[in-house]
Automatic annotation (TrEMBL), chains A, B:
<dbReference type="InterPro" id="IPR004384">
    <property type="entry name" value="RNA_MeTrfase_TrmJ/LasT"/>
</dbReference>
<keyword id="KW-0963">Cytoplasm</keyword>
<dbReference type="InterPro" id="IPR029028">
    <property type="entry name" value="Alpha/beta_knot_MTases"/>
</dbReference>
<comment type="similarity">
    <text>Belongs to the class IV-like SAM-binding methyltransferase superfamily. RNA methyltransferase TrmH family.</text>
</comment>
<keyword id="KW-0949">S-adenosyl-L-methionine</keyword>
<dbReference type="GO" id="GO:0160206">
    <property type="term" value="F:tRNA (cytidine(32)/uridine(32)-2'-O)-methyltransferase activity"/>
</dbReference>
<dbReference type="GO" id="GO:0002128">
    <property type="term" value="P:tRNA nucleoside ribose methylation"/>
</dbReference>
<dbReference type="InterPro" id="IPR029026">
    <property type="entry name" value="tRNA_m1G_MTases_N"/>
</dbReference>
<comment type="function">
    <text>Catalyzes the formation of 2'O-methylated cytidine (Cm32) or 2'O-methylated uridine (Um32) at position 32 in tRNA.</text>
</comment>
<dbReference type="GO" id="GO:0005829">
    <property type="term" value="C:cytosol"/>
</dbReference>
<feature type="domain" description="tRNA/rRNA methyltransferase SpoU type">
    <location>
        <begin position="5"/>
        <end position="154"/>
    </location>
</feature>
<dbReference type="GO" id="GO:0106339">
    <property type="term" value="F:tRNA (cytidine(32)-2'-O)-methyltransferase activity"/>
</dbReference>
<keyword id="KW-0489">Methyltransferase</keyword>
<keyword id="KW-0819">tRNA processing</keyword>
<comment type="subunit">
    <text>Homodimer.</text>
</comment>
<protein>
    <recommendedName>
        <fullName>tRNA (cytidine/uridine-2'-O-)-methyltransferase TrmJ</fullName>
        <ecNumber>2.1.1.200</ecNumber>
    </recommendedName>
</protein>
<dbReference type="Pfam" id="PF00588">
    <property type="entry name" value="SpoU_methylase"/>
</dbReference>
């Protein structure tokens, strides 16, 4: 699942960011982590922040250059907070980047590259990339923490993958409740009308009020159980109404 | 910008998660943070992890119950890692939740609620919500760190807001380079053809090869500057070719 998509972190300063990035990756089905010249690695902080994704940290490959990290990749997207003057093709929308990377990653290795916390990627490193992507953000404060940026783009990759017809992804949906029939709904609305008239809320059948209530319950889509509950309530209320 | 959308964190255990969540919020244009019974707050860890979003932490409202936190809201979405058996309306897709919350938030306060790191929200707290949302994730390891979950959903909210015609959001695009005219492109392709024939790469005009190259450069969309660069290169190469 998404196994051809490599996440590359270049010269990460805080080992905690490596761990948190690994966790972010694993929640989104990514497993291939490569570190280019991490400042301190291995490190207890990386393992601690990884939580249940320590396997990704333990299996992470460490290399000396970005070139080495992506040599076998057919597409390399550099994530940068700021656009560079170098007119590398740029994805405005992370979702577009994700769709394309997942598509290319179906056949060959591809990579998404993140730079240093403070300084991002150098121009030489940008030259190892075929595309750039940035995460649209608040113009007044738009720099995400490194691991947060990894989480956001990993989420976009997982979303793009899920939506492919061949992904086989099945959301964990709750069991659907049984729905009432039209006849059962009609009985309920008749019952409700009777109680409204009997209680003096309306003095005769009032088409507009009844139409509003029918629309409300149509939107609510009560299950059989819920309708039954409402009928029971109406029954209890009726017992206190004056005899007709 | 997105000012009616409140982020509520219930009984957050790690103050660092409060700070990191505030940072995540601010990068995505959110400013209204409310904390329900945080375990330790204020705390230096919250300020430290907030980075440039300390103002959100300082302005965060602290209340004693979720009910109090969302009393004035017209829509309250509970973010939970697991679906509850309670059939509260559920958003499968964070993007759908975001579109709706931004829409509702145009007129009235709305809230997105996150539970405890380990235990999420209690059933009573779910009852304060009108909807649930979960972030689709790896079925084998799908629990995001709290601040990461805030970042992902905040990103979806910002995306939904950006895409509205009335948002006024303008992406920071690099200045577009001037494009060559058809005539300039034709001159370039003629020049390239001459060099290909003159060098012996093709022995006569070869329509298929030329069509491929025209398609390549059509996709590449060289700017005027780039075309000029290529013409210069062709000129330099020509000087070394045997006289015709």
């Amino acid at each position: 699942m998404l196994s051809n998509i490599r996440i590359v972190l270049v010269q990460t300063y805080h080992p905690g960011n490596i761990g948190a990035s690994a966790r972010a990756m694993k929640t989104m089905g990514l497993t291939d982590l490569v570190l280019v010249n991490p400042r301190r690695f291995p490190d207890p902080e990386a393992s601690r922040l990884a939580a249940g994704a320590e396997d990704l940290v333990d299996d992470a490959r460490v290399v000396g250059s970005l070139q080495e990290a992506v040599a076998d990749c057919v597409q390399v997207v550099g994530a940068s907070a700021r656009l560079r003057s170098l007119p590398l093709p740029h994805f405005d929308e992370p979702a577009d980047m994700a769709r394309e990377l997942v598509e290319q990653g179906a056949d060959d290795p591809v990579a998404l590259v993140f730079g240093r916390e403070r300084f991002g990627l150098t121009n030489d490193e940008i030259r190892c990339c075929s595309h750039q992507v940035s995460i649209p953000a608040n113009p007044d404060y738009g720099i995400l923490n490194l691991a947060q940026a990894v989480q956001v783009l990993a989420h976009e990759l997982f979303t793009a993958w899920r939506r492919r017809p061949d992904s086989g992804y099945r959301p964990a949906l709750p069991a659907t409740e049984r729905q009432p029939t039209r006849e059962q709904l009609d009985h309920f609305h008749d019952h409700l009308s009777r109680v409204m008239q009997h209680s003096g809320f309306i003095t005769q059948p009032h088409a507009r009020t009844e139409a509003h209530l029918q629309a409300l319950f149509a939107r609510a889509r009560p299950s059989r159980r819920e309708l039954s509950l409402l009928r029971g309530l109406l029954g209890s209320l009726e017992r206190h109404l004056p005899d007709e």
